Amino acid sequence: MQLFSRLPARRSITVPEDAVAESWRARTRETESRSFSPAVDDRTLEVFRRARRPDDPMELRDLWLGRVEHELGAAGTRPWLAERWRSARRAREVTPEEVLRSRATVRFVKELFNAYFRDDLYGEFASPDNLVMSSGAVEERHWGLPESLKECIRFALDQDWYGYSDSRGRASARQAVAAYENARIEGEPYGASRIALTIGATFAVSTLADFILDGGDPREPALCAIPNYPPLVETVARRGAVTLVPLPSVDGTTSLEPLIAALTPSTPLVLLQTAGNPTGAMVREEELARLIAAAAPTTMIVLDECHEWLGPSRTASARRAAPNVIRVSSLSKTWSAPGLKVGWITADAAFIDDYYEHASTTFGGPPSFFYTVVEVLARMEHWLITGVEEAGAAELGCFEPHYGLRAGALDAAYQSYRRDRAEREQSLDILRAATVSRLADAGAVTHLPRYSINAVAEFGGWDDSYLCFRDLLRETGVSVFPGLLTFCFSGGVGRVTTSRNWRDQSLALDRIHAYLARRASGPMTAPRVGAAR
Questions:
Q1: What pTM was estimated for this model as a whole?
Q2: Does some domain include residue 332?
């Protein structure tokens, strides 16, 4: 059997003309400079002041939700939580620094994250009429895997390639990833010995935290930059002390100065997203190089690069290949395949050798079924970066004979992949700009992302992002993701995922616009019950 002997027709990706026009308007309008910070505000401090046990994350969660229920008044649905908030009294003073160093803070945000999905969005308030703009992922029905990658999965199944394998992943797939990563970074530092395939990014960070922090001093805190994804931070916090480090951003660029200042010679681990979630803000390569240079050789720096797509291409600094840097990638964002749980890490060869023992002991290895997908994707991405127009004899020679590849079939698959890739990125880029523009028209303070499908909108009139979510869902049937759930501790910050089909996205934006206009002009602007307490 030959790989790519059959290649079904590509899906058609079209963007409505009104979305294209809105996108163009967004790119040509003048905007003032915008800054964003996830700093701890007084409202957050008040929950810690009132907790009987500020080290109990469940109590912190219930107090936060109780205040939301109290301020919702007649619209609240959990009176027992509202009463819990009303009966709580200040018991102490708390500083922002104490909140950022507290183990309970990380778990409290993760528990609120759980409650948002389990109990609220897909629980009590679930409805087929809701428009979910908070998924954090591309809508797969419209922007799923290219047919060339789907064919790799079908081929692997037909070949029965799902047996045991090397705990780092199949050698040919790791070689392909190394070539791809070398095309993205200065100096071509990678070989297969510096690559390990993983079961997605979240699992990878979890196993890395296990491996790096095992046997270390639990009192020396790891540094986790925020905003960040709660499961990643929680998995680090389970292994030892954590300090959250708020990173401000201005006009889509994140400053690493607070993280550099927080480093000590004993810092065991740094967790950093190179493109922020939810902001889409990027880190400057020169600042990242300074962070890596400032860290002790024993400080392992884990770079979550999963959101570093749908933005300007750039060459990574050679510093990213330093012996104490681990880079994490996955297919969950770039190719809309979070359910496949496929990705890889790059690290020093000695680290990968030791990680092999950890992997083989704890989980065995990544799913061998997906190795062909990873190999083909990495090869084709490498060709795109290096300007390959047609897949010919040289490209055919990259693959082992057992694939049964033929030059014509490989080139047809590559051309299909190229078109899918270009159309997908173009359409998602248009929808992102159009969505941000429409949110700005509705009166939200918006931040146009440099990368990612997520965008931040600050909704005036709310000082609590979870309360904002509840109001918007009740009044409009539209769900946004509360900023609090990415450690944005102040204001009515909502994360909006911009990659829905435009018909639904436009309807959701119309509803938000109409509701915000009513709030601005009517009695809904009056203070809520207990809002000033």
A1: 0.95
A2: yes
